[in-house]
Amino acid sequence: METRRDFIKTCALGLGLTGVSPITFGGTETGQKKEDNETKRYQGGISPWPLVLNTSTIRPAPNLLEKIKIAHETKWDGVEPWINEIEEYEKQGGNLKDLGKQIKDLGLIVPNVIGLWDSMPEGEENFKSSLEVNRNRMRMAADIGSKHIAAIPAPDRENIDLKWCARCYKELLKIGEEEYGIRVVVEFVGFFKGVYRFGQACAIAVDADDPRACIVADTFHLFRGGSGFSGLELVQGKLIAHFHWNDVPGDVPREEQGDAHRIYPGDGILPLKEVLITLKNIGYTGCLSLEIFNREYWKQDLKVVAENGLKKMQECVKSAGV
Question: How do residues 129-169 score in pLDDT, each as one tens digit?
């Protein structure tokens, strides 16, 4: 009988393609000459940013290896996994550093992992208690080669203390960089009661008083939390480490929308063309990651969903003329 460990080994061998050159982003790999971000292009020259598949978009796929395989076969530049998928892979006997090498050999990048849950609890004692779990999550994300890991300002609560969140974030940044070589980034969530706006996430990052501080932005959360998109013009591109990309329907009130309402870019009402132009103007050099939780898409052939998603992303970028 095939064990879980045997299954992981078999799947890993199936992913082990050769002759694929690794992709770099937001800088360069060790030993390589830094490339000019103004001229670096992806997707056959279509995009100035790597286009990445967030595994939420194909969540029903049976395991992390299958999601990586789909991202590779449908020609994405990278894959953005969730920490529970990585935890499950390691729990079943997988070696994360070996997995990271396999991902790199496929020519894929891992720009970010989601994430550090409950990373900013109320009170010093609770924060210290959360560090053991979150240190392990940083370690796992770093082992597969991720550049960033997102810290969610949770447990969610009304009247959350942004000054306290900044203190927590400052400590998380230090731990990530010094102990694991990974950068922790702040992610706001549009339907939270606490940190749900772009400005709040920016405040946490800025008040951490660390030049490495940065955030994850998301078109859905900018819309859902009521931040809008004009504020993007007021920051430098380096404040944003990573950008989740999606659209929303126009027939559901903003306050009633949830993750399941996300749709392909270009199929909804968000000003994505204008946002892309802004990102280019402010010098954003991270990735665009398709993050969708659409239950109707999940019922379809997931490889087709990934193919359609990439096509929509490409069309979106081309329409902006960036």
Answer: 999 999 999 999 999 999 999 999 999 999 999 999 999 99
236-278 pLDDT tens trace: 999 999 999 999 999 999 999 999 999 999 999 999 999 999 9
* Reported pTM: 0.89
* Of residues 159, 195, 66, 54, the one with CA closest to residue 112: 54
- Three-state secondary-structure class, residue 94: coil
CA separation for the pair 69, 165 (Å, rounded): 37
Task: Tell me the CA distances in angstroms from 202 to 12, 146, 244, 268, 274, one per residue in order.
Answer: 39, 22, 16, 27, 21
Q: Which residue has the tokens 């802004």?
A: 278
Q: Which fold has domain 45-320?
A: TIM Barrel (3.20.20)
Q: Is 75 exposed, middle or buried (0-12, 13-18, 19+ CB in 10 A)?
A: middle
Question: Are the C-beta atoms of residues 222 and 228 closer than 8 Å to each other?
Answer: yes
Residues 6+ apart with CB under 8 A from 95: none
CA distance 33 to 229: 34
* Partners of residue 244 on adjacent β-strands: 218, 289
Query: What burial class does residue 44 get, using C-beta atoms within 10 Å of its C-beta: 0-12 exposed, 13-18 middle, 19+ buried?
Result: exposed
Q: Which of 89, 81, 152 is nearest to 110 (CA)?
A: 81
Torsion region of 262: left, alpha or beta (phi above 0 gives left; psi -120 to 50 gives alpha): beta
Rounded CA-CA distance 178/47 in Å is 33
